[in-house]
Amino acid sequence: MTWFLDHLAQVGGLLVTHAYLAVVPLVVGLALAVPLGWLATRFPRLYTPLITASGLLYTIPSLALFVLMPLVLGLGILNPLNVIVALTLYTVALLVRTVADGLSSVPEQVRQAATAMGIGPVRRFVTVELPLAVPVIAAGLRVAAVSNVSIVSVAALIGIAQLGSLFTDGFARDFLDPIVVGIVACIVLALILDLAIVALARAVTPWLRGGRAG
Amino acid sequence: MNLILAYLTDPAHWQGSGGIPARVLEHLIYTLVTLLVAAAIGVPLGLWVGHTGRGRWAVVNLVNGMRSVPTLGLLFVAVLVLGPRIRGDLAFVVPSILVLVVLAVPPILAGAYAGVDAVDPLARDAAKAMGMSSREVLFGVELPCALPLLFGGLRSAALQVVATATIAAAVSVGGLGRLLIDGQAVRDYGQMAAGAVLVAALALAVDLVFALVQRVAISPGLVPARRRPIDRKNPTPANPVA
After folding, report:
1. Where is the ABC transmembrane type-1 domain (chain A) (predicted)?
2. Which site among A150, A174, A197, A209 would you substitute to test the B interface, given the most B Cβ atoms closer than 10 Å to its Cβ?
3. Is the pLDDT reported for residue B18 higher than 90?
4. Shortest CA gap B52–chain A (Å)
5. ipTM over 0.90
6. pTM for this one?
7. How far apart are the C-alpha atoms of A125 and B230, rounded to whole Å?
């Protein structure tokens, strides 16, 4: 506890970097996964290849992906962008399936009703299908957010500073305090992100909160 | 790219205790031992929870909660705390395997539980109506029907273990992670990248083996996979890799 109080500023700084490295891929990944998920439901022939490709991507261990990224992107190994791109890939891989499943969970009658009301395909997607898919997408997003926080800490092994650096520093000095502080900070960050997504999903789906349908 | 090829085509890297085949073998042994221990814990427990319906809440929370624990930190804590109490080479291996087991149990447990939980209640009722005992229902009906999801849990646990065993090289255990960590220490990017390629290939191979076993082990009656409707209150997406 004293160690934590003495190093408050350092831990805070690492926490901010950690949050940044975990959240940017989440947002970018979601932005990429929505159109891909739409493609997978709109053109059923694309479903299997898209899901298989994302499954294979997800199979690659994080440390391996972090090490190979500089080769693919042509950046220095210490560039945090490697971590951001790698995590974006993981996020997309996880969310393509979730988005596709969420979109196909929208009842056909609802889709037809929207069409019958004269709503065009683009507006129907944005105002009807996507909002109805939010609960399923949010569930996937929560998983992605929480695992991103854990995976970011692995990047400490290739020398990118964030909360994981507390683990490597503590281990190198045979000193438990920073490691425990780092673990707690990671869990707290994951919890905050998780709650934020739950709150956001609730805010955009007011119909799920209302009283029972008459 | 040339660096990777140069490393992989050097015959010296394919021999001896630090050679690639030895590292692959170590990696596979860690993975297999972990999976066996974790399955011995997770499968019976998951079947029991699914069969009796007790402790569902605990299973869901355990799985979600474990995801947020950073693997690397857990690994370091285990080695620092347990290491000094264990003698010799095992001082690093035992705590590492322990952490790997802790990580592998939740997905296996969840897979077994979800498999039994998803069994068509009509099938269960029919088995009971035919006079099967509770035990016969579990092993004759629920377990075979649960296999697809149970294998799904084992498969994601296996991938997680392969990935985390790589990271465990940071605490001096063997396996392919050694190439990455040792390469990093001497700034040999070729060795690191070669290690990364090998780890990725190993993970894909393990996943492929699981896919094949799954295809053989699961009753053909369960295969025509209609895409099941999603449970909106509790959708459970795939388990992520560490």
Report:
1. 15-199
2. A150
3. no
4. 26
5. no
6. 0.85
7. 19
